User: Fold this.
Amino acid sequence: MKKTFKLIDLDCANCAAKMEDAIKKIDGVKSATVSFMTQKMTIEADDERFDEIVKLAVKACKKVEPDCEVVVK
Amino acid sequence: MSRKQKKNLVRIIVAAVIFAGGFFVPKTEETFSFLWFLRLGVFLAAYLTAGFDVLWKAVRNIAHGHVFDENFLMSLASIGAMIIGEYSEGTAVMIFYQTGELFQSIAVGKSRKSISDMVDLSPDYANVERNGEVFEVEPDEVAVGEIIVIKPGEKVPLDGVVVFGSSGLNTAALTGESALRDVTTGDEVLSGSVNTSGLLKIRTTSEFSNSTAAKILELVENSAENKAKTENFITRFARVYTPIVVIGAVLLGVVPPLFDGNWSEWIYRALTFLVVSCPCALVISVPLSFFGGIGGASRRGIMIKGANYLEELARARTFVFDKTGTLTKGSFEVATIVPEEISEEELLGMCAAAEKISNHPIAKSIVNAAEKRALKINAECAEEIAGYGVKAVISGREICVGNARFMEKIGVPVKNADTVGTVIFCACEGKYAGRIIVRDEPKENAAAALKKLSELGADRKIMLTGDRKNAAEAVAKTLGIDEVRAELLPDGKVAAVEEIYATKSPKTALCFVGDGMNDAPSLARADVGIAMGALGSDAAIEAADIVLMNDNIESVPLAVKIARKTHRIVTENIVFALAVKVAVLVLTAFGIGNMWAAVFADVGVSVIAIINAMRAMRTNKL
Assistant:
């Protein structure tokens, strides 16, 4: 499954790159992009574990940039 | 400015005022005296006003194990400067750093907004008619088959068919060409175009998520996923750059003073290193430039699916074109009529009457030509002989119309000068009556577009076609094509692309241009696949890397120009940022640079790179 999330207050391009890196390292993630320009995060991961992976990804983002908020719909 | 940005601006101003006040407190050599405390206090107040959040983030990130975090490095550099007694410099570093960050955030926000405005096709609302009343609803609440009303000046929210009214539609946002398209009852309209004159009612044919506007929007937004090689390279580079500079700082602060004992001087230089260690200018300006290029291209009706394709297109030197529909109009037209002992009209009328029963595009073009001249085209009876032509009876005479093989079959000798195009022969009562030459005319601007490509350094321009060799070569010659692969079967095109691919230089890229009809494999095989006139064709949008919303072949050289410009800007930014940073590092190591120069190398360079990156958006004059 592939899903895109909005990011609020993603302030630095380097942080976006760091987030992307961190998400890619999560087990079960097939591909991930964090776009500083569009302020969006796209995650492609296994269907069964998707929600769990998203939670881990949000946590990883918070760790890099605590002020940045991921909108999980 | 967002609220957060405004708050930061106020903070920076307050900090700057306090900072200026600090200079009125005379410097004293007497440590721990009243004046000394006052001076420290004023600068400290300015420092904390400007940088408390940076300090806080630094602490928080260190707790998370991010040692090479920019907040941490900035804090370390400024605190270090304070400790060695450089109050004003330590404070200035923080104030300038914050000013730069604020500016960056405003500039990026602005360019992001102007880019998204550029591709602003998505309508805010739809006027839907239900039970005779009109409601304003969200576009995604409208079902397929409902009637929506579009007033003059409004955007068409959903694809549909006109059921009432007529108007001119401006499709500039879709195709990049501000041409009005007149529509009336029964015509199809695409979402994203703007109604300019009359009131229109349309029956929707798609849901919002499937509409043209939504699809284009999705295409541009998703383009951020396909990152350019340069961008990936820069992010990888940034990961090693910061640690290297930090290690350099540590060595600089510890090793030389062991020999000369001048600790404060060397530590000052080491702290300066830390200020330069942030790779922000690079990391920010590369994706910003690509995004700007993609946004600018979309305004010209060129949809690019990712920065990587923009990068490949900049390298493209080999251009492979599908002939029909790309270089030519894709519709046959009667070019010449050569009658034998009868009038032109008579010959055309006879052929058209016979060909009327056929659905072949060539037959249709002959019928069209006859209708244009208002000729009577009636046949008593007609019969299509597959692979040969048509046999008909007109005014009691037996007429045979078809290819050379047909004439051979019925034993009629023909005259045939070797001409370009497809030749249709006519025999009347077993006697040769003349020939009609039908051609797929090249687009008016195809030759000009190819010339522009040559000027851009395209060294091989190759045309693929199923036509006969001599006909294909003649077309190629008038267009300025370098090589021709003729007589290809539909599935032979990919093989041809494959073969060309093998012979090109690995440093350059191969670009395939087609109309998206049955050339999806070739579009996919090329480094960059460009589909033309793809508005409304899902298959082409799916298969191509770059989609031209209009049917204008000159968009191809334009796309190349945009790609080159973007690429140039990216290179400029990388070279400039690295050069300044390295220069400041070297000067600092030798004691010539200072913290002010370092702040410029960090923040100033970012700002300049951002401003430069925003140039990529401007594509109007290309």
About this structure: Chain B has a mean pLDDT of 86. Chain B has four domains: 3-115+226-289+567-617, 126-219, 303-328+443-559, 330-441. Chain B touches chain A through 26 residues (CB under 8 Å).
